Fold each of these.
Amino acid sequence: MQIKEITTNKTDYMDLLLIGDEDEKMVNKYIDYSIIFALYENNILTSLCAVITIDNETIEIKNLATYPEFQNRGYASALINFVCNKYKTNYKYLILGTGENNKILEFYKKRGFQESHRLQNFFINNYEHPIFEEGKQLIDMIYLKKIL
């Protein structure tokens, strides 16, 4: 397993970024100022994580995605651990936002995240079309926070 920082041609990874955030306009809002980490297994791209700085104490994962054929193999967890270890000396908190999807919320909670706050109607107000996960329309953005 190898993790590389992507500094150029970030849009080359749009297909994978769109797994984590299906609206290209939304991805384009943060891609240029994100730090993207790509995880490779046997020289094959499996997952990526886009991180931004919020303030002098907080970083945010804007996108965490794994190709479907590589899911449930620990790659997303490895990226979260990598980000935590990389930034823990300079930042206090890692946050991220997600929809109200029980499977995804449990994934993050098992990795030390706790619910912080909600942005009411985020998915309705910021996406051109309804977003569904597990057959349920996403409405609020749920923010999770972890102490580094």
Note: Strands lie at 2-6, 35-41, 44-53, 58-66, 93-98, 114-119, 132-133, 136-137, 141-147.
Amino acid sequence: MPIGDLSNEQLNNLENNYLKAKKTEGAIYSLSEVRIEKLRRMPNPFGVRESTAKIIELAQASPDGLTTYGELWNAFRPNDPWKGNASGRIMSQALGRVAAYCIDNKLPIITTLVVRSNSKKLAAEAIDHIFEFAQGLGVDTGSDPNAFIAEQTEGARKLTKENLPPA
């Protein structure tokens, strides 16, 4: 049975069984495959491929090769001003889904190019979050979060909109 045919309840049960057993493999699908499938089913308020393409477009148009949360927000919601935590939650959900799309399609994690506007850097907590998120989805991250992020950022800068796989 393809993983896409499993119900949400079946996916949750598989994930919970892995966590209880403190294992990542052993059933028909690995823990990372289960988690990626769960993320694949989550809606993205801006569209997964569209969000990925927009990050590429905005980062390539920027002198430093980065874009900000605000620039990305304004690209999708030009008439809706940023509203603190509410907008932040929407962006977090969208970027999490984009990161999962990248991992699922063996692409560099493009969300490493989305930074805070005040510092134009990824915050330490963002670095840790992306690193742990990738580990949780079975990515070989190595042991150094900063080295992993630098590698992902370098790869992300080479992506083009035209070569993105379908979502």
Note: The chain has a mean pLDDT of 93.
Amino acid sequence: MGTVLRRIKMSVLAGMKTNAARDVIDVDGSFLTIEDVTRVISDPTTTIGLTSNALKKMRAHRDFLLASAKKQAIYGVNTGFGPMVTHIIGANDTSELQYNLLRGHAMGVGEPINARFVLSAMTIRLNTLAKGNSATSPELVQVLAQCINHRITAIVPEHGAVGTSGDLVQLAHIALPLIGEGEVMYRGKRQQASAALADAGIQPHTLGPKEGLSLINGTSVMTGIGAVLIPEASRALSLAARTGALAFELVHGFTDVISPTLHSLRPHKAQSRIARALRDLTNTSRLLSQRETSAQKVQIGDKTHVTDILLQEVYSLRCIPQILGPILDTLQHTKNTIAIEINSVTDNPVVDLPGKRFLHGGNFHGDYVAVALDQLKAALVKMTMLSERRTNFFLNKNINRTLSPFLNLKTPGLTMGLQGLQFVATSTTAQSQSLGFPHSLHSISTNGDNQDIVSMGTDAALLTAKVLDNAYIVLAIELVALSQAAALLGVERALSRPAQQLIDEVRAQVPLVVEDRSLTIELESFIKKLRYDPSFDIIW
């Protein structure tokens, strides 16, 4: 079951002053999808609405919390936080406690994280709060919805979260604008939140008991980053398969490498799916070879001798299904983890309304997301390494035995060919390799040793984003190299139709390099197209 998406004409939705037709995603805390989040961050006409059921749930849980706080101690409501839990807060100070919590944790430093990550995190936090178990008021969540719908996104520094008690520092920066504080991006301008809210006609919220804690105690930032990365990582894998298929054609690859019979003998589903994709991509090619034909050309005799007939490709060309298969599996696992986390309650404590009690635990701990994103990061590094190795194969005449040095289309020695471009692929791949170690293993005890083992999930997410950036760079470079190789070999018309289309796409963005020229601007434009053009996607 998915979220309800409706197309309506409206004059007011969560504070939107417009008569335009808009797509509205109705949120109730249970059915938000990665695709919904993608729609919010990519389509400015998509807005968030709260179902009547969500509003009722939030009100009921809120009323229970307010009544209970008069009779008992509740962590984060009338107690201090973390190791200060033994400090009981007076009834007159419970609201001030929440303001102090936000202001005292909005301590991040460094470059702002991508606004798409922030908007994704805001959307996921809203969905979490819409479940009701965090006992926030509906009015607070409606202010958050208004900020999402107006695309008022907080300036959130990259450094600060340890990922346990969730993304406290980054979420504090996201929460401040809801009370009219902090800095935001609005209509392309960095400005004070108070000015942006006034311009949008949004009234800042007055915090009540627990509301500050509910805003910042959870995994919404790391999950939000993950939700943005999943479709872009999927597209990168599709590109890796398309690029691998093109390279396979250019070396006249043997068809048994992608034979369904071969892959059925090692029945990993993802491996077979990659092999099937390679078969589908190459089935109109006139370049692939039959191994039996080549084997029969080898002279067999009584004496040992060397043949110049190559009977097996290097691993980067022969083992594409076996390498990309586990990457596909990892991507699917990470996607499933993020999908569950999006619809989870990651606060503490939470209200169990049927049981009329408060539950204290550790649902804020980010290891599910951190470990999954670490695994995706490692998989993306391996995918990048595979691409870089094939690029090296085509640029190194001592290995490919056919092409000019560095795929030079003019005068080797006098002109450079793609030498400089290979350095970019090499250094970028090396950087990704250095980032590949699981960041979730870098736990350091903090918070007076209350948080004595932490997830580092937000940093794991940001590092995964960097590795994905690098993957697109290296894949783009390989495609430029393959375009050059196809020209040198003169085989464009013998390529499969998908390969011809891919070559045409490459050359439309990065024309063949004959005379030396800088490719920086062309390559950066090409990378953006690869990353955001859905026509490259493969449905696995």
Note: The mean pLDDT is 93.
